[in-house]
Write a structure and sequence with these properties.
The chain is α/β, with parallel strands linked by helices. Helices cover 38% and strands 17% of the residues. The chain binds iron/sulfur cluster.
């Protein structure tokens, strides 16, 4: 058995090819993509959040608190952790467990809590881990032992969290330091108010599997992939384009390889590409040659077979867009508003940008923004949302009074809807905040138009359906060459002075320009879709 491969918890949710590449000596010196700004920001934010939680826990348990310094070399961290655990320390923060060459595991965990003579792992994450409801097993940070059922929270399933915990449970078991009984682990989420405990032996996964069983199967697979790579045997994982590729350091290697082989995953993602390849159809050209009206060689999960074939043909011709239908239709109205909301992670929606156009209703046309520049979460978000809602309601009312039709547009309504409903719920009773029923009336009124859905119905998009990809076809360009949703997160951090720096007013202006451009882009897109120019886009049936 090769004992040189040691894997941490991340491998079980990571691309198999990436696991291969990370252990393949033949590519050890290959240059990789630098960490993108978004990933770097997420890592920094997660570290800040972990420190915040650690300080809060330490304040509750000053006499029982022990930390293993992250600055120590790994072997010293391991021995310091082991000494604390063998000494029965009640809480150990930042521990690194002994690697287990036999099983191929290594890793650490944010917190180890002594419980019934052993230790329970607790991870700290920067996402929500519960929703309103009941049934979660929680305990307070002041007493993070196992307690009963929470009457106010239900668990938000986070498979990645459970798999991370399972990894640590196996490491603790190998060291003889796990709490006996059912495999259990805790998560402290974004709110940092409770520990949510997961029964990792419960059959809550598809097929009645437990998190432990799922973890064991995935880990065994990744271990085989890594060991085959390390010993330069036949690779057990090949590249296939997936969402993870966007931020993967190995894309400079995989991207050209996929393009060179004209791999079918360039137009299909995930399971469909894997299934087609398994059926012997591995190239875009092979897919493009099939009859779109025929039977698919394998059942398709992500899109219809017809669309898949036509997308492959569009890709062959390097077309960003093709028309599904000869005539393009998009809802239009006398009075029109383009809306774009900006949020910061799970913390709040800090900006509602609106572009009013069309018939005169006695209100200034053009762009206006409803914003709070107090860092979210803040009660001031209620004020800015109420102002947005009052303005939108006024526009609707004036249009109705004049007998004019009205429509409001967004690009992918999920985000806007989520924050409208969330604001109605979070700020219920505050001045000007609509009820959830009022929000529901608006989003289901027929006046709220999701242009993303319209684009999806009218076009096949070989390079994605993001607004930044599609709007240039309508001749629209953003003022800021770095405009992107991901970058806007970084700008927001600076704009409100997260992390203690003074607020950067130039970044506020940058965000407003970016938001104004986003609503300008949706307007340009629908004007173009209503024009004759849209007929310059090739029709799918002609490919
Ligand atoms: S670029 Fe994509 S296929 Fe290649 S290792 Fe990364 S995630 Fe996997």
């Amino acid at each position: 058995m090769d004992s040189t491969v040691l894997l941490d918890a991340a491998v079980v949710t990571r691309c198999r090819r990436r696991v291969h590449l990370e252990h393949d000596p033949a590519v050890a010196g290959t240059s990789r993509a630098a960490l993108d700004a978004t990933t770097a920001r997420r890592i920094a934010d997660a570290a800040t959040h972990r420190r915040f939680v650690a300080d809060r826990l330490a304040a509750y348990h000053p006499a029982d608190w022990a930390e293993v310094s992250p600055g120590l070399p790994a072997d010293q961290r391991c021995s310091a952790t082991l000494a604390l655990l063998l000494g029965g320390a009640p809480f150990v923060w930042g521990g690194l467990l002994l690697a287990d060459p036999e099983s191929g595991r290594r890793g650490g965990v944010e917190l180890l809590v002594r419980h019934h003579g052993g230790y329970l792992p607790v991870i700290v994450v920067r996402h929500k881990v519960t929703d309103p409801g009941s049934g979660a097993r929680t305990s307070s940070l002041a007493q993070p032992g196992l307690v009963g059922t929470d009457p106010k929270r239900k668990v938000r399933p986070q498979s990645r969290d459970q798999l991370r915990l399972a990894h640590v449970v196996r490491l603790l078991q190998a060291a003889g330091l796990a709490t006996r009984g059912r495999a259990t682990g805790g998560v402290i989420g974004l709110e940092a108010d409770v520990v949510v405990w997961h029964d990792l032996d419960a059959p809550t996964w598809p097929g009645g599997r437990s998190a432990m069983a799922e973890y064991d199967a995935r880990f065994a697979d990744r271990l085989a992939v890594a060991r085959a790579a390390a010993t330069e045997e036949e690779p057990l994982a090949q590249p296939s384009r997936i969402t993870e590729c966007r931020s993967c350091p190995w894309w400079p290697l995989c991207g050209p390889a996929l393009r060179a082989s004209r791999d079918v995953s360039l137009v299909l993602r995930g399971e469909d590409a894997v299934a087609l390849r398994a059926a012997g159809l591995s190239t875009v050209d092979g897919l493009a040659a099939l009859d779109p009206a025929g039977d698919p060689p394998v059942p398709m999960a992500g899109m219809s077979f017809r669309d898949a074939v036509l997308l492959a043909r569009a890709w062959q011709r390097d077309l960003t867009l093709v028309r599904r239908n000869r005539r393009i239709t998009v809802p239009r109205a006398d009075v029109e508003v383009d809306v774009d909301m900006e949020s910061f992670d799970e913390s709040g929606a800090y900006l509602w940008g609106c572009l009013l156009s069309g018939s005169d209703i006695g209100m200034p046309s053009g762009y206006r923004a409803f914003a709070t520049w107090e860092p979210v979460p803040t009660p001031d978000e209620a004020r800015s949302f109420a102002a947005f809602w009052a303005w939108l309601t006024e526009v609707r009312a004036r249009a109705a009074q004049r007998g004019l039709s009205f429509a409001a547009y967004c690009y992918n309504e999920q985000a806007e809807n989520r924050w409208m409903f969330s604001s109605a719920e979070r700020f219920a009773g505050a001045p000007g905040i609509p009820t959830a029923a009022a929000v529901q009336e608006f989003v289901s009124s027929g006046q709220w138009v999701d242009l993303y859905a319209v684009v999806s119905a009218e076009f096949l998009c070989a390079h994605g359906k993001g607004l930044k990809t599609i709007a240039p076809a309508a001749g629209f360009g953003w003022h800021d060459p770095e405009a992107s949703g991901e970058n806007s997160m970084r700008w927001y951090s600076d704009a409100v002075g997260l992390g203690g720096a003074p607020p950067d007013l130039t970044q506020r202006a940058r965000l407003l320009t970016y938001n104004a451009d986003d609503v300008g882009a949706t307007r340009a897109l629908r004007l173009w879709m209503s024009s004759e120019q849209v007929n310059d886009v090739p029709y799918a049936g002609d490919l």
